[in-house]
Structure to design on (287 residues):
């Protein structure tokens, strides 16, 4: 399905919600189109305060049977997984009866990178009779547009750093190693791995404080992995990303337009302008 064409399936849409504000933004967008939304925030991940006053059911990681038991009788046939979630350990899963039956396959799903894990979990969901959708399919306005999101634009030196970052990510993505890199002075100074983007940026800030990174400025570059299932794990940015980039003393952020989710775009643009950073959507391979 094209990102510009939202799902038109009848019946409610189930959102399995991780952390952050993005799940609620998607829920509001879908509801504004007249479709009922069933919220399933994850216990220990989603903030309960965010769901006060909304129809929701908290579930633990691994409670696929519980989700199916609630969603199916309401006519729900489509599910979206959305929101921040640090890769869990196998021991953090609280399986219900259905997940216990699938446990050998769940264990095998954990034996690989993030894309391997998510793709195999997606298959298990679809085998229960649901269709897995990307958040960008049901709420295409969450995707980053091409061009600057605030008033600032990259310099020629920034553009050179962006090109290096995109080239690296296109190569490293084949090995399922993260979706982000920091380039400064045409040198790659940090690569995202298991720690996630925020921790990578915190590491850049610490390296600057230690004098280990001497080139001024630099760019956070984010891009989807070439082979990843974009229904499950598009890279994302939000106001917090801008705050971390400012702390790391970067010049800006570059992401793939149409291939990156942006949370709270107005707040992100305001934060970038205040911090004196650019945030830009650049051309890239988006299916």
């Amino acid at each position: 399905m094209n990102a510009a064409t939202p799902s038109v399936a009848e019946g409610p849409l189930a959102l399995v919600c991780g952390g952050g504000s993005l799940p609620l933004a998607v829920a509001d967008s879908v509801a504004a189109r007249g479709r009922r939304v069933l919220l399933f925030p994850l216990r220990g991940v989603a903030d309960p305060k965010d769901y006060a006053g909304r129809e929701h059911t908290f579930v633990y990681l691994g409670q696929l049977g519980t989700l199916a038991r609630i969603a199916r009788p309401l006519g729900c046939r489509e599910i979206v997984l959305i929101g921040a979630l640090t890769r869990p350990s196998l021991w953090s899963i609280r399986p219900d009866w259905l997940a216990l039956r699938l446990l050998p396959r769940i264990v095998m799903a954990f034996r690989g990178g993030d894309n391997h894990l998510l793709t195999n979990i997606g298959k298990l969901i679809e085998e229960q009779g649901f269709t897995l959708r990307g958040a960008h399919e049901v709420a295409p306005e969450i995707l980053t547009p091409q061009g600057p999101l605030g008033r600032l634009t990259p310099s020629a030196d920034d553009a050179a750093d962006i090109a290096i970052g995109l080239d690296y990510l296109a190569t490293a993505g084949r090995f399922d190693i993260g979706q982000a890199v920091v380039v400064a002075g045409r040198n790659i100074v940090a690569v995202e791995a298991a720690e996630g983007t925020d921790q990578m940026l915190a590491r850049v800030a610490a390296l600057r404080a230690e004098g280990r990174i001497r080139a001024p400025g630099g760019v956070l570059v984010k891009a989807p992995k070439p082979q990843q299932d974009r229904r499950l794990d598009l890279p994302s940015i939000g106001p917090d990303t801008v705050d971390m980039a400012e702390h790391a003393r970067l010049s800006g952020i570059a992401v793939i337009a149409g291939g990156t989710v942006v949370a709270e775009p107005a707040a992100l643009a305001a934060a970038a302008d205040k911090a004196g950073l650019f945030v830009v959507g650049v051309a890239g391979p988006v299916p």
User: Anything to note?
Assistant: Residues 13-140 form a domain with the Rossmann fold fold (CATH 3.40.50.20).
